[in-house]
Amino acid sequence: MELKHLRAFVALAEELHFGRAAQRLCIVQPALSMQIKALEDELDVRLLERDRHKVALTETGRLFLPEARATLHQAMRAEQTARLSARGEIGTLRIAFVSSVLPKLLPTLIRSMHARYPLITLELKDMPTPDQIAALHSNQLDFGLVRLPVTGAGVETRLVLEESFVVALPDDHPLAAQPLIRPSDLSGCPAFVLARRYAPGFHDEMLVALKHEGADLEIAQELGEFSTMLALVSAGLGIGVIPAEAAIALPPRVTARPLDLANHRAGIGLAYAHLDSAAKRALLGVMEQCARDARAK
User: Fold this and answer.
1) Contact, 57 vs 13, CB < 8 A?
2) How far is it, in rounded angstroms, from Cα 223 to Cα 197?
3) Is 110 helix (H, G, I), strand (E, B) or coil?
4) Residue 284 burial class via C-beta count within 10 angstroms: exposed 0-12, middle 13-18, buried 19 and up
5) How far apart are alpha carbons 145 and 248 in whole angstroms?
6) Quick one: which of 52, 232, 263, 296 is 20 to 30 A from 114 by CA?
7) Alpha-carbon radius of gyration of the chain
8) Maximum Cα interatomic distance, the chain, rounded to a whole number of Å
């Protein structure tokens, strides 16, 4: 059953006039008659009664009309979906993220993607960096917002955010009175840090930078989430060394002070294994624009 035959039938069924229907389809009347006959012959039914004076739908034609319309509508949707997909304007992307991007970076990406590509659905999942890398390798994810650096073959990363470090302190801690904290000031203070299992590259580089700048850090506990760390700081059980973005939303009784860690920065990267679809390339472009906009501020 050809779509052009269905279009001819729908046009004639709606106009009930060969001349108007042919004009609507931009074809001549004999061609319209041939298409209607071909459809009826293929179905082995009579869809229209016609003579020199009038055209009318048969009972079969009346029942067939809504089905023909639905088929044409679905065909149009299929064509539109294919074209949008080829342009990277429709689809589903699976994205994992580390929790510290929730306050600012992730909402910025979501808003920008929805504004430019409203038909692309983002499936989001909170996941530690090593788990994201494994999921990218096994094709369970399309992208990951990871803590840099990451190692290993098969995954590319683009730096999208660099953060300084801060120290999260109970409000009544002696260091809370200082506008800037030196690493050496942290010596002897029970401190919470992100566990190595959740971001090994980030963990190792931060401790090396702290030691290089004179901090003899007393690690009270290694934790999996900055939010948990801040809750323990709020309870007065220690201090937390965290990236600045993780300190955007502090719980009650917690103060954040900048840490003078020379030029050491924490990096967030967009990680991916393949850019094998237009939708993936579209998201990469949006993320890079978001990163440029953030750096320009």
Assistant:
1) yes
2) 9
3) helix
4) middle
5) 18
6) 296
7) 31
8) 102
pLDDT (tens digit per residue) in 149-187: 998 789 999 999 999 999 999 999 999 999 999 999 998
Strand order in the sheet with 266-272: 119-126, 90-97, 143-148, 266-272, 156-163
- Take residue 270 and report the two structure tokens written for it: 């967009």
Q: If you count them, how many residues does the chain have? A: 297
Helices (H), the chain: 3-15, 18-25, 29-43, 59-86, 105-116, 129-137, 200-212, 226-234, 278-296
Residues 89-127 have pLDDT tens digits of 778 999 999 988 988 899 999 999 999 999 899 999 999
Residue with tokens 């319209």: 32
Instruction: Match 């120290």 to its residue by tokens.
Output: 167
Q: Which of 215, 214, 235, 115 is CA-nearest to residue 170?
A: 235
